[in-house]
Structure formats: C-alpha cells, structure tokens
Amino acid sequence: MTELETAIECQGLTKRFGDRTVVDQVSIAIPKGCIFGFLGPNGSGKSTTIRMLCGLITPTSGEGRVLGYDIVKETERIRQHIGYMSQKFSLYEELTVAENLDFYAGIYGLSRKAAQQRRSELLDMAGLHGREKHLARTLSGGWKQRLALACALLHEPDILILDEPTAGVDPVSRRIFWDVIHQLAKQGMTVLVSTHYMDEAETCDRIGFIFSGRLLVEGTPAALKERFQLPHLEDVFVHLVRREQGDVS
Length: 249
Ligand code: ADP
Ligand code: MG
Known about the structure:
Elements: E1 6-17, E2 20-31, E3 35-39, H1 46-53, E4 61-66, E5 69-70, H2 75-81, E6 82-85, H3 97-107, H4 112-125, H5 141-152, E7 159-163, H6 171-186, E8 190-195, H7 198-202, E9 206-211, E10 214-219, H8 221-228, H9 233-244
Parallel strand pairs: 3-8, 3-9, 6-7, 7-8
Antiparallel strand pairs: 1-2, 1-4, 4-5, 9-10
The structure holds adenosine-5'-diphosphate and magnesium ion.
C-alpha cells in the first residue's frame, strides 16, 4: 500500500501511564475511504490509541502518520484534517441546533459566509432542517448524535474519528446514525470508529480487536469469521478473549 492510499497508519504504537502499558505495540494501516471499526472491552486502550492518533497525547514509543502527517511533530496539521468526536463529546444543551453549529464554526475559525454555507449543507446531511431553533436538549438520542457529527464535520475534514459515538443510544437511532456514516464513506471519507456493538462492527469495511492494549486481530469481518470458522463476529471475539485468558487451548 502506498502512503497516498493510506489515511491512518501506525507502527508499534505504545503508551505507558506510570508502569502500566495501556497500549502495547499497536500497528494499523487504514486505507482512504475505509470505515475501520475499533473494538474491545472497556479499558482495553481504544480511547488512548485514538487520542494518540489525533495528536492529543504523545506516544511513549512507536510512530504514526495521519494523511502523511506525523502524529507527534505535526499535530496541528492533523487537527485541521480530522473531525473528532471524543467519547465525552457533548453539545451545548441550552443552545439551539443552529447555535451549536455556529459555536463550533467559531472554534474552527470559519468565516461567517463559510459557516452559513456549511450550516446549510450539514443540516441537510443530518436531516435537521426545520429543527434549527430547537434546543439541543430537546432532541432525541439519534438527532443529538447527528448534530454532534455535523459539528465535527464543519471544517470539512478528510477523516472522521469517532470514539464510541453511539454508546447508550437506542437501536433505531444507532441505525440512522450509521446510515449517515456509510453515506459519508461513500463520498470518500475515512472513518475510524470505536464501538461495543457487534451489529455495527459487522457493517464496517475492516475491524480491529484490541484487548489489554494489544491488537489481537485485524481484517474484514468476513475474513475474520472465515479465519476462525465462526458464524458471528461476537463468537470470534469471545474465542479470542478466552484464548488470551487461557480458557481454551
Ligand atoms: P477504552 O477506551 O478501551 O475503554 P482507555 O484507552 O480509555 O480504554 O483506557 C485504557 C487503560 O488506560 C484503562 O485502564 C485506563 O484506566 C487507563 N488510562 C487511560 N487514560 C489514563 C491516564 N491519563 N492516566 C492513567 N491511566 C489512564
Ligand atoms: Mg474509551
């Protein structure tokens, strides 16, 4: 794979907090236009890996590039090119839909004209036209997540990085949210998304499963099921976790 075709890559990415290694030698290459699902139980190192790839925290060792930019030395560049929804990303509940978009447009430094144009495009994408004046807190789960996504897309990033965007969101809202993600990927967006939900993982182009900081497997959902001769991804992961814990030979 040439560099141009790779949106996100890292080799031997490692993060230690004190004497605890929470991300351990993770290597990934995510092609442009790919939806990459990042799976793993709570505390396995998903958010820490994502934060290193976004240039928000510095790796203890290893290296990585996002669109060719170094994740340690060119963090400012990376931030211009990614839309990031952190796990705790929250909208301003007492602001309206339009005011939330305007607020984030200000943060990204968009001109007034650019902000107006993007606002209209994103309201379309999120299906939020007609709800501009609704307070964010009055939106249901799915609408909220789509508004949050719209905010992360204001500066027209090439890459979307979403850390558990649908945690605790009801199944119908999750489905609608994922429809938007697939639509964006079709238009060429690269998406790195962490999730707990196996139904979401099944619809990703590639997935990686991280456990205790180590990337245990990576590949297409079909290839992983084939490799372990198991019918569902959930079975594959249960198998892997048991193997790690020494429950099966
Ligand atoms: P996940 O997103 O998969 O739930 P995290 O990357 O958030 O996992 O966390 C991995 C491990 O690293 C956890 O045990 C967590 O407590 C620890 N950890 C995360 N951030 C810090 C930090 N800033 N300082 C110390 N430990 C941390
Ligand atoms: Mg996390």
